[in-house]
Design a protein that fits this description.
The protein has about 260 residues and is an alpha/beta fold. It has one domain: Rossmann fold (3-Layer(aba) Sandwich). The protein is built from nine helices and seven strands; from the N terminus they run E-H-E-H-E-H-E-H-E-H-E-H-H-E-H-H. The protein has a seven-stranded parallel beta sheet with strand order 3-2-1-4-5-6-7, sandwiched between helices. Helix 4 packs parallel to helix 5. It is globular, with a radius of gyration of 18 Å.
Length: about 260
Protein backbone atom coordinates (compact mmCIF):
# COMPACT_ATOMS: atom_id res chain seq x y z
CA UNK A 1 0.00 0.00 0.00
CA UNK A 2 2.70 2.49 0.97
CA UNK A 3 5.57 1.30 -1.26
CA UNK A 4 7.30 4.34 -2.79
CA UNK A 5 4.74 6.71 -1.25
CA UNK A 6 6.33 9.86 0.18
CA UNK A 7 5.29 10.18 3.81
CA UNK A 8 6.42 13.20 5.83
CA UNK A 9 6.28 12.80 9.61
CA UNK A 10 6.90 15.64 12.05
CA UNK A 11 7.78 14.83 15.63
CA UNK A 12 9.63 11.82 14.18
CA UNK A 13 12.47 11.82 16.70
CA UNK A 14 10.60 9.82 19.38
CA UNK A 15 7.31 8.32 20.49
CA UNK A 16 4.48 7.86 18.04
CA UNK A 17 6.37 9.67 15.26
CA UNK A 18 9.35 7.34 15.54
CA UNK A 19 7.14 4.26 15.65
CA UNK A 20 5.25 5.42 12.56
CA UNK A 21 8.49 6.09 10.70
CA UNK A 22 9.74 2.57 11.37
CA UNK A 23 6.40 1.05 10.42
CA UNK A 24 6.20 2.95 7.11
CA UNK A 25 9.85 2.19 6.38
CA UNK A 26 9.06 -1.52 6.62
CA UNK A 27 6.48 -0.95 3.86
CA UNK A 28 9.21 0.53 1.64
CA UNK A 29 7.74 4.00 1.81
CA UNK A 30 9.93 7.03 1.25
CA UNK A 31 9.92 8.68 4.66
CA UNK A 32 10.79 12.26 5.55
CA UNK A 33 11.87 12.48 9.19
CA UNK A 34 11.38 15.88 10.79
CA UNK A 35 11.79 17.26 14.31
CA UNK A 36 14.10 19.73 16.03
CA UNK A 37 16.71 17.23 17.27
CA UNK A 38 18.82 16.16 14.30
CA UNK A 39 20.90 13.57 16.22
CA UNK A 40 17.71 11.80 17.28
CA UNK A 41 16.41 11.88 13.71
CA UNK A 42 19.64 10.27 12.57
CA UNK A 43 19.14 7.58 15.22
CA UNK A 44 15.62 6.92 13.92
CA UNK A 45 16.97 6.79 10.38
CA UNK A 46 19.47 4.10 11.38
CA UNK A 47 16.72 2.17 13.13
CA UNK A 48 14.67 2.27 9.92
CA UNK A 49 17.66 1.00 7.95
CA UNK A 50 18.04 -1.77 10.50
CA UNK A 51 14.42 -2.73 9.77
CA UNK A 52 15.25 -3.11 6.09
CA UNK A 53 14.66 0.36 4.66
CA UNK A 54 16.89 1.62 1.87
CA UNK A 55 18.91 4.66 2.95
CA UNK A 56 17.87 6.44 -0.25
CA UNK A 57 14.25 6.24 0.91
CA UNK A 58 14.94 8.19 4.11
CA UNK A 59 15.35 11.95 4.31
CA UNK A 60 16.32 13.63 7.58
CA UNK A 61 14.91 17.17 7.50
CA UNK A 62 15.26 19.02 10.81
CA UNK A 63 12.65 21.69 11.44
CA UNK A 64 10.96 23.64 14.19
CA UNK A 65 7.24 23.95 13.48
CA UNK A 66 7.13 27.27 15.35
CA UNK A 67 9.42 28.85 12.74
CA UNK A 68 6.50 29.50 10.44
CA UNK A 69 8.34 31.49 7.80
CA UNK A 70 10.78 28.61 7.25
CA UNK A 71 8.15 25.97 6.54
CA UNK A 72 7.50 26.72 2.82
CA UNK A 73 11.23 26.28 2.24
CA UNK A 74 11.12 22.91 3.97
CA UNK A 75 8.31 21.85 1.63
CA UNK A 76 10.50 22.83 -1.31
CA UNK A 77 13.33 20.69 0.07
CA UNK A 78 11.07 17.65 0.25
CA UNK A 79 9.80 18.20 -3.28
CA UNK A 80 13.34 18.67 -4.53
CA UNK A 81 14.33 15.34 -2.96
CA UNK A 82 11.28 13.20 -3.77
CA UNK A 83 9.23 15.28 -6.30
CA UNK A 84 5.97 14.71 -4.43
CA UNK A 85 4.34 14.49 -1.00
CA UNK A 86 1.71 11.79 -0.70
CA UNK A 87 1.04 12.09 3.01
CA UNK A 88 1.82 14.62 5.74
CA UNK A 89 1.46 13.45 9.34
CA UNK A 90 1.47 16.47 11.65
CA UNK A 91 2.73 14.75 14.79
CA UNK A 92 4.87 17.37 16.54
CA UNK A 93 3.44 18.38 19.88
CA UNK A 94 3.79 19.33 23.53
CA UNK A 95 1.65 18.49 26.53
CA UNK A 96 1.08 20.25 29.86
CA UNK A 97 0.88 19.43 33.56
CA UNK A 98 -0.22 22.51 35.54
CA UNK A 99 -3.32 24.14 36.96
CA UNK A 100 -4.74 27.10 35.05
CA UNK A 101 -4.46 29.43 38.06
CA UNK A 102 -0.71 28.81 38.19
CA UNK A 103 0.11 28.72 34.48
CA UNK A 104 1.89 31.64 32.86
CA UNK A 105 0.44 32.96 29.62
CA UNK A 106 3.74 32.26 27.88
CA UNK A 107 3.15 28.55 28.47
CA UNK A 108 -0.27 28.73 26.79
CA UNK A 109 1.32 30.63 23.92
CA UNK A 110 3.98 27.96 23.42
CA UNK A 111 1.43 25.16 23.50
CA UNK A 112 -0.70 26.90 20.89
CA UNK A 113 2.32 27.76 18.74
CA UNK A 114 3.58 24.17 18.66
CA UNK A 115 0.35 22.19 18.77
CA UNK A 116 -1.85 24.43 16.61
CA UNK A 117 -0.14 27.11 14.55
CA UNK A 118 2.75 24.85 13.54
CA UNK A 119 0.35 22.18 12.28
CA UNK A 120 -1.77 24.71 10.40
CA UNK A 121 1.21 26.46 8.84
CA UNK A 122 2.88 23.30 7.58
CA UNK A 123 -0.41 21.95 6.27
CA UNK A 124 -1.05 25.20 4.39
CA UNK A 125 2.45 25.03 2.92
CA UNK A 126 1.88 21.47 1.63
CA UNK A 127 -1.74 21.96 0.54
CA UNK A 128 -1.14 23.75 -2.82
CA UNK A 129 1.01 20.82 -3.99
CA UNK A 130 -1.71 18.32 -3.11
CA UNK A 131 -4.45 20.44 -4.66
CA UNK A 132 -2.46 20.71 -7.86
CA UNK A 133 -2.10 16.91 -7.99
CA UNK A 134 -5.65 16.37 -6.74
CA UNK A 135 -4.17 13.71 -4.51
CA UNK A 136 -2.79 13.43 -1.01
CA UNK A 137 -3.49 12.61 2.59
CA UNK A 138 -3.22 15.05 5.50
CA UNK A 139 -3.23 13.74 9.06
CA UNK A 140 -2.78 15.21 12.52
CA UNK A 141 -2.05 13.53 15.83
CA UNK A 142 -4.68 15.13 18.01
CA UNK A 143 -5.71 13.35 21.23
CA UNK A 144 -8.62 12.17 23.29
CA UNK A 145 -7.86 15.53 24.96
CA UNK A 146 -9.14 17.08 21.74
CA UNK A 147 -12.62 15.94 22.72
CA UNK A 148 -12.49 15.59 26.50
CA UNK A 149 -11.37 18.18 29.04
CA UNK A 150 -8.89 17.01 31.68
CA UNK A 151 -7.47 18.81 34.73
CA UNK A 152 -3.91 20.20 34.55
CA UNK A 153 -4.15 20.19 30.76
CA UNK A 154 -6.17 23.34 30.00
CA UNK A 155 -3.72 24.55 27.38
CA UNK A 156 -3.14 21.11 25.91
CA UNK A 157 -6.88 20.41 25.68
CA UNK A 158 -7.45 23.82 24.11
CA UNK A 159 -4.78 23.12 21.49
CA UNK A 160 -6.01 19.63 20.67
CA UNK A 161 -9.64 20.78 20.46
CA UNK A 162 -8.41 23.46 18.04
CA UNK A 163 -6.62 21.07 15.69
CA UNK A 164 -9.58 18.69 15.70
CA UNK A 165 -11.79 21.58 14.62
CA UNK A 166 -9.35 22.84 12.00
CA UNK A 167 -8.81 19.49 10.30
CA UNK A 168 -12.49 18.52 10.44
CA UNK A 169 -13.35 21.82 8.73
CA UNK A 170 -10.50 21.43 6.25
CA UNK A 171 -11.78 17.99 5.31
CA UNK A 172 -15.16 19.46 4.45
CA UNK A 173 -13.44 21.94 2.14
CA UNK A 174 -11.05 19.66 0.25
CA UNK A 175 -12.25 16.08 0.38
CA UNK A 176 -13.93 16.45 -3.02
CA UNK A 177 -10.57 17.61 -4.39
CA UNK A 178 -9.15 14.11 -3.92
CA UNK A 179 -7.41 14.81 -0.62
CA UNK A 180 -8.05 12.75 2.47
CA UNK A 181 -7.90 14.24 5.97
CA UNK A 182 -7.52 12.08 9.08
CA UNK A 183 -7.54 13.06 12.73
CA UNK A 184 -5.74 10.64 15.04
CA UNK A 185 -7.01 10.57 18.62
CA UNK A 186 -4.64 8.61 20.85
CA UNK A 187 -5.40 7.89 24.47
CA UNK A 188 -2.69 6.80 26.89
CA UNK A 189 0.31 5.59 24.86
CA UNK A 190 3.67 4.64 26.40
CA UNK A 191 5.81 7.56 25.23
CA UNK A 192 7.70 10.42 26.91
CA UNK A 193 4.79 12.83 26.46
CA UNK A 194 4.33 13.44 30.18
CA UNK A 195 8.07 13.66 30.86
CA UNK A 196 8.36 16.36 28.19
CA UNK A 197 5.21 18.23 29.25
CA UNK A 198 5.38 21.86 30.33
CA UNK A 199 4.68 22.96 33.87
CA UNK A 200 3.24 26.29 35.02
CA UNK A 201 6.44 28.27 34.35
CA UNK A 202 7.41 26.47 31.14
CA UNK A 203 9.90 24.10 32.74
CA UNK A 204 9.82 20.40 31.86
CA UNK A 205 7.63 18.16 34.02
CA UNK A 206 10.16 15.33 33.91
CA UNK A 207 7.95 12.58 35.34
CA UNK A 208 5.94 9.74 33.87
CA UNK A 209 2.22 9.65 34.56
CA UNK A 210 0.85 6.40 35.91
CA UNK A 211 -1.75 6.33 33.14
CA UNK A 212 0.93 6.78 30.47
CA UNK A 213 3.10 4.07 32.00
CA UNK A 214 0.17 1.66 31.80
CA UNK A 215 -0.89 2.72 28.32
CA UNK A 216 -0.76 1.04 24.93
CA UNK A 217 2.63 0.07 23.51
CA UNK A 218 3.74 2.71 21.03
CA UNK A 219 4.43 0.19 18.26
CA UNK A 220 0.95 -1.30 18.64
CA UNK A 221 -0.38 2.26 18.47
CA UNK A 222 1.51 2.87 15.23
CA UNK A 223 0.05 -0.29 13.70
CA UNK A 224 -3.50 0.84 14.49
CA UNK A 225 -2.80 4.28 13.00
CA UNK A 226 -1.26 2.87 9.82
CA UNK A 227 -4.21 0.54 9.30
CA UNK A 228 -6.58 3.46 9.78
CA UNK A 229 -4.68 5.62 7.32
CA UNK A 230 -4.59 2.79 4.79
CA UNK A 231 -8.38 2.55 5.01
CA UNK A 232 -8.72 6.32 4.67
CA UNK A 233 -10.53 6.63 8.00
CA UNK A 234 -11.48 10.20 8.78
CA UNK A 235 -10.96 9.71 12.51
CA UNK A 236 -8.64 7.13 14.07
CA UNK A 237 -9.09 6.50 17.80
CA UNK A 238 -6.22 4.49 19.27
CA UNK A 239 -5.90 3.18 22.80
CA UNK A 240 -7.61 0.69 25.05
CA UNK A 241 -7.96 2.27 28.49
CA UNK A 242 -10.74 4.07 30.31
CA UNK A 243 -9.96 7.25 28.37
CA UNK A 244 -11.29 5.64 25.19
CA UNK A 245 -14.63 5.00 26.88
CA UNK A 246 -14.67 8.72 27.70
CA UNK A 247 -15.15 9.46 23.99
CA UNK A 248 -18.50 7.66 24.07
CA UNK A 249 -19.51 9.04 27.44
CA UNK A 250 -18.84 12.58 26.16
CA UNK A 251 -21.12 11.96 23.22
CA UNK A 252 -24.02 10.29 25.00
CA UNK A 253 -23.77 11.38 28.65
CA UNK A 254 -21.67 14.56 28.85
CA UNK A 255 -22.83 15.50 32.35
CA UNK A 256 -21.51 12.20 33.66
CA UNK A 257 -18.14 12.82 32.02
CA UNK A 258 -17.85 16.32 33.50
CA UNK A 259 -18.34 14.84 36.97
CA UNK A 260 -15.79 12.09 36.36
CA UNK A 261 -13.22 14.59 35.06
CA UNK A 262 -13.59 16.70 38.19
CA UNK A 263 -12.65 13.68 40.32
CA UNK A 264 -9.33 13.44 38.48
CA UNK A 265 -8.20 16.89 39.66
Amino acid sequence: MFTNRVIWITGASSGIGEALAVRFARDNARVVLSARREPELERVKQRCIGEGAAESNLFVLPLDVTELDALPGKVSEVLQRFSQIDMLINNAGLSQRSLCKDTELSVYQKLLDVDVMGQIALTKAVLPHMLERRSGHLAVTASVAGKVGAPQRTGYCAAKHAVMGFFDALRAEIEDEGIRVSTITPGFIRTDISRNALTSDGSVYGMEDEDIAGGMDVNECAEVIVQGLEKGKREIPVGRGKEMAALWVKRFAPEMLFKLAKKQS
